[in-house]
Structure formats: C-alpha cells, structure tokens
Amino acid sequence: MESVMRKTTITGLLTTCVVSLAMFSSCTGVEPNTLTQEEVADGWQLLFDGKTLNGWKDYNGTTLTQPWHVVDGCIQAKGDGSDASGYIVTDKQYENFELSWDWKLSKGGNSGMLYHVVERPQFAVPYVTGPEYQLIDEPNFPEPLEEWQKLGVDYAMHLPDKSKMKVNPQGEWNNSKIVFDNGHVEHWLNGAKILEFEDWTDDWYAKKNSGKWANAPEYGLAKKGVLCLQDHGYPASFRNIKIKELPRKTKEVELFNGVDLKGWEAYGTEKWYVKDGLLICESGPDKKYGYLATRDYYDDFDLTVEFKQEADGNSGVFIRSFIEEDVKVNGWQVEVAPKGHDTGGIYESYGRGWLVQIPDEKENILKEGDWNTMRIKIQGDNVQTWLNGQEMVNINDEKIGAGQGRIALQIHDGGGIKVLWKNLKVKTL
C-alpha cells in the first residue's frame, strides 16, 4: 500500500509540475529558470539551467550519483523512501549571498535548503555543519512536529514569525529566500520576511550549545560552504534557483580581552587561565595535548600574537582548523617551539606532516625567555609567517586553500610546558 501511495504521489507531483510551469510562463511572460535583464545586471546567477544537473554533485563526492533528476524544468528528489538521506550540493562554495528558489512538496513532504555546508570525510552528513531552511508540509505531515521543526525555521535554532507567513496550498509553488550578509541572516517566504537573526553572537552560541547541536562542535561556524538540497524520502521539486553574491566586510578583532577566556573554548585537561592580563597555557597532570580554540571561524586573515616561552615552551598556533573527537585538532599549525625546532614553520596535523621547516640560520630569530611577536597572514592558498619582523614562511598550498576553520593555541603533550600570550589581534581579509 505504501509503495502504491508513493507512486501516486510522485505521479501527481509530476503532473502539477508541468501544469504549474505552463501557468507561470503564460501569466508572467518570464520562462522559469531564466534571469531577466535587470537580474543579470544586478549580479544574479542561475544555479539550475532547467535542463541538467550541471553544477551539482553528491555531498562529499565528485560526481552525481544520488537519485535526483530533472523533469519538465524542475529538479526532483526521487522520494520513494529508499533515499531518505540523499543530499546534492553545488560544486561551488558561497559566503555572503541572497539565495532565492521555488519549491513544491508532496503531501506530507519534508525537505530543506542548507548553506555553508563543509565537505570533509569527517562530516558524514551536511547538517552537522550547515544551517537549514526547513521545508515541510506541516498540515499533512504524519508525525507531531516541534516548533523548531516547522516550515521556515532555522532548523533547531530560530523560529519564524507565524503572523507573517503565507503558505500556498500543498501542491502549489512557493518561493523562499535566504539572505546571509556577514553574519546577518534573513528567511523569506512568498515575498515576506519571516525570520531575522545574527550569527555568532552570545545568544546564538547559547542556542547552539544547549539544543540539538550541543554535540556538533562545528555546526554553523563556517563562513562559507556549498549549498545543499535535502531528500528526506518524500517527492520534492525545485526550480528558479538563483543567487546573488554579496561582498565580504573586513573587521579587526581583539581575540583576547586580557580579563577572561570569553570567545574561546578549551579542549582537553591542560590548563588555560588568565593572570595579570596574560593568557597562560600550562601542562596539566595528564600531560596530554590541549587546545584553546576560537569560537568563530577565521579563514582569510592577518593575525598578530605575542608569546613568551617558559619551561619547555612547545606550543603552536593552528589555522583553518576544526575540532574532532578525543581532543584532536585537524588542520595546520604554525610552530612555537624551543630554539632549533622550527618556530614559524608550518606543520599539517594528521596529514602530510611538515610543509615548511625553518633553516638553521633563522633559528636565532627566536628570543628564548623573552617576548616574541609572530604574524600569520593567510589569504586563499597563500600563507606567510613572520617572527620578530623576519619572514619565516611564504608558501602556496592548494589543500590549505580549500580549508577553513578556527584559530587555536596548542599545548604539546609530554608535560613541563608553559607559554604566556598577549596582544592576540586578527584582521579579517
């Protein structure tokens, strides 16, 4: 019975898709999946040509194998229940944008549009990194829904203003829009703004850390990523998917306020504390690796830090890194170590190892037992480091260029380590 019902639903959705396309074209004079001259001049781009799935691929893949297809100018999810975790993503990343699309669901249907999705093997599904604009046929959904699961929500985070929501009947087209502008987020439905919030504020982090995403440390942190359509096992159709990219705004941030560890998150059992206006890291009784990571992601930036090594002083500054289980930071480290051990060099953790080591003639640039100034500039695939005004590294690396993530300070394992930090300042580029 279920398979018969699903077949009927799919057939009905195909029929209404064809009829609706014809009505749309005759009423507006604008063909679906095209841009007006005004939109082209304003910078809009089509993400779906109405004929092929060019520009889309499997999540964490290089080609398209998921059971999505194009029917009569619509992208359609197979929706037979066998593919309830089917995701397709754009082959390009987007940062700041206006994204608009038309959508239609089967009776009781469930789908979504995700953005800023990070593709890495460590992330098995897109929703552990990317926020979702929820699409669901509330009146006909077969199970009770929590408020944070309903139409238009920022899934499991922010709720829309129901009084502003006008939803077309099931089987008809609706239009949605997401605006993401340097942390300012808007959800629109059929021409009305239904939700507005700011990312990465204290309130945002409180919601993230107390709800569904409490155990998803990288959820919502990425400032860029691919777009993702979700197949939740129900037929769903999409068309007129278009995007207008918005400019990135630069800013300067004091990463350490000299008072407490606000804006940072500690991982591991090693010691991180503030004393006399200094940020201090010190080995704990477990003598294992420890990390202090920024809450926020920083991708392209110019970072300056001052540090003084006491005891062994083996530490480091991680860039474009993310947290894994078992107190593991995956990314690239600019080394902070005793003289003779490549301070200012670049090491890829859990990967290729040393990318650049420091020549012997530069080892004396480090001032042991005194304050040192390190500068790290990363933009695209280029990384430069300086120690006390002297350039240590200047490399281009494609893998680094594809990365994104947090800034993090490290305590090396082995015990006996103590490093003092101050004047941690970053300028986004």
From TrEMBL:
GO terms for molecular function: hydrolase activity. It comes from Parabacteroides acidifaciens. It comes from the Bacteria. Residues 43-244, 253-427 form the 3-keto-alpha-glucoside-1,2-lyase/3-keto-2-hydroxy-glucal hydratase domain. Gene3D superfamilies: Exo-inulinase, domain 1. This is DUF1080 domain-containing protein. Pfam families: 3keto-disac_hyd (PF06439).
